[in-house]
Amino acid sequence: MFIFGVMLASMAIGGSLGYDSGPFVPFPPAQPSQENLDALCTQGGSRPRYPSSFFPKSGYGHMRRCGSAVNRVESWYSVCCAVEKESQKLCCAKQAWEYVLKVFCREEYGVKGLPHECCEESGASRLSCFEREAPNASYQPTPDYTALEVPVDLEFAWDPKTCG
C-alpha cells in the first residue's frame, strides 16, 4: 500500500516514475466562435504545428492523429480567415472545425485501439464533447513560437451557401 501511495503522490506532483510520456499534442482545437475568431485568425502563426519529425519513428499513433488534425484545421483556418465578411469567416471556420473532427474520428476508428472518447458520441453531442475538452478555447498564441509550414494531406472546401 505504501508503494502505491508513493506512486500516486509522485504522479500528482508531475513525476513520471521513470517512464517517457512521449510527445504531447494539446487536443482538440476549440470550436470557433465570435469570442475567439480574432485570435484564431491573427495568432495562427504562433500556435504549434506538428510535423512528422515531432514524433518518434514508431508508436504514438493517437498523438500523430491529433497532430494531423491540428495541422489540418490550422491550415484550413487560414483559408477561412481570408474571407472578407466576418459572418462568412466564422461560418467557414466552424465548417473547418467540424470537418476536421469528423475526419479525425474516422481515422481513430480506422486503427486498432480505443478511439477518442468524443468519437463515441455522434452529431451535436460529439461536437459538444470536443468543445468541452479543448485546452485552448481562446486560441491564444504560444509565446516565442513561430509556426512551421506543415504540408496538409487533405483539402477543405467550405460551402458559403450553408451560412446564414
From TrEMBL:
UniProt KW Repeat keyword: yes
Signal peptide positions (record): 1-18
Domain of life: Eukaryota
One GO cellular component term: extracellular space
Keywords from the named record: Repeat, Secreted, Signal
Major localization class: secreted
GO biological process: regulation of bone mineralization; signal transduction
Subcellular location(s) of the protein: Secreted
PANTHER family on file: EXTRACELLULAR MATRIX PROTEIN 1
Protein name: Extracellular matrix protein 1-like
Lineage: Eukaryota, Metazoa, Chordata, Craniata, Vertebrata
